[in-house]
Write a structure and sequence with these properties.
alpha/beta, single chain, Mannosyltransferase_CMT1, 396 residues, Spore Coat Polysaccharide Biosynthesis Protein SpsA, Chain A, 10-stranded mixed beta sheet, 14 strands, two-stranded antiparallel sheet, 13 helices, Polysaccharide export protein, 43% helix
Length: 396
């Protein structure tokens, strides 16, 4: 009898696995929408005004190899009368300034409205200032150090100030702000991103990759429930609405994203008070917590709950040409077999991943309670401290 029971149980296990595989195969192969792209050869039906913003530091290589040309191609397609390009570079020790001067000259030939700001202030210069005001934190090294996130938030706000100034000078408002990281992208990528949900969104983001198959920007991406991703590889998310949409190749609802390229409705940036990028309070940061300005901005954005924040899985950008070519080799990028294998890996890793997520969440909640003040971007917080150093930034 025991042997027969064991054999029966084995059969049930095999049947269960077979059913799971059958379901996964159907789900991955047949339930999703076909990949959708807006070709750059088509007539772009929505003639919106697009404000294009970017910050740069030591990006000469990709500026010269891809980025400058991609921006010129984009503004040529959209029309110089429909865009404004705002770039802020500061403290690079490579020739990013030279590369951006070349871009400035190319945009001038096209009569593109723009602001290309090149500054000599380095990280070392910023760090040498006497600590005053916000953005400084006492660290385990026994001194006040300049926090990375408020520093970046200030740079982004300076770029956004160009939009307000241009609107005031010209008497019109931009419809979308398009933030571009130092990534390889095409006009088709941008058009597809702008067309997410027919353009009705608070924000729409690409997916970004440096070393595929792992996606890059884990600091800013949170699923619709506010959780960090379960895995850096597809299907990324814990089971829920975000993963279901991803598997179906639909626009993925999330709480926050950035991921290389993001388009946002500009209305909150024109409001009074205007939406701004920010870091968490210095007092909270001293408790060894941090949150990305690119995540917190969605928590502060009143449109996020009204229009939604989305990842468009059909838009994939890379921090180098090899990464871009890999993730765009096929419309769905990964084969059905690879996707089924990835789903099973995440099933097997679910318990450990959930335990890690819960443990970090408990740490964050404990420190928030210790701080004693509300933080709308609670889901953005992680158990880290990040400060500026001469050659970049450092975890403490």
């Amino acid at each position: 009898m025991p042997c027969r029971r064991t054999a029966s149980e084995s059969v049930l296990v095999v049947v269960a696995i077979a059913l799971f595989l059958t379901y996964d195969t159907f789900d991955v192969s047949f339930s999703g929408r076909p990949p959708y792209r807006v070709p750059s050869t088509s007539a772009y039906s929505k003639r919106e005004r697009i404000f294009i913003g970017s910050i740069h530091w030591n990006n000469e290589a990709i500026l010269r190899s891809h980025w400058n040309k991609a921006v010129v191609d984009l503004v040529t397609f959209l029309g110089p009368e429909n865009v404004f390009v705002a770039v802020l570079e500061s403290g690079s020790w490579d020739d990013s300034k030279g590369a951006l001067r070349e871009l400035d000259a190319q945009l001038a030939q096209l009569d593109v409205p723009r602001s290309i700001v090149l500054e000599s202030t380095t990280h070392a210069d910023e760090m040498s200032r006497t600590p005053n005001g916000t953005g400084w934190v006492w660290t385990s090294r026994g001194r006040q150090e300049l926090r990375r996130v408020p520093y970046l938030a200030n740079l982004r706000n300076r770029v956004m100030a160009e939009m307000a100034a241009e609107s005031e000078a010209k008497g019109f408002r931009f419809d979308k702000v398009l933030w571009l990281n130092d990534v390889v992208f095409t006009t088709e990528d941008v058009l597809t991103l702008l067309s997410t949900y027919d353009g009705e969104y608070a924000a729409a983001c690409s997916l970004d990759f440096s070393k595929p198959p792992a996606y890059y920007d884990t600091f800013a991406l949170r699923d619709l429930a506010g959780s960090k991703t379960m895995s850096p590889v597809w299907p990324y998310f814990f089971p829920g609405a975000s993963r279901r949409a991803l598997v179906a190749n639909e626009a993925v609802p999330v709480r926050s994203c950035w991921n290389g390229m993001v388009a946002m409705d500009t209305m909150p940036f024109y409001a009074t008070p205007a939406l701004k990028f920010r870091g968490i309070d210095d007092g909270l940061a001293e408790l060894h917590l941090e949150g990305s300005e690119c995540c917190i901005v969605h928590a502060d954005n009143p449109l996020s709950k009204v229009l939604g924040v989305y990842i468009n899985p059909n838009v994939r950008v890379g921090y180098n040409q090899r990464a871009y070519d890999t993730i765009n080799a096929a419309p769905l990028w990964q084969s059905t077999t690879e996707r089924i294998r990835a789903i099973w890996k995440l099933r097997l890793a679910f318990v450990l991943a959930r335990l890690q997520s819960t443990t970090e969440s408990m740490t964050v909640n404990r420190r928030l309670k210790q701080w004693g003040n509300p933080e709308p971007g609670r889901h953005c917080l992680i158990n880290e401290m990040q400060v500026l150093v001469d050659n970049g930034w450092k975890h403490l």
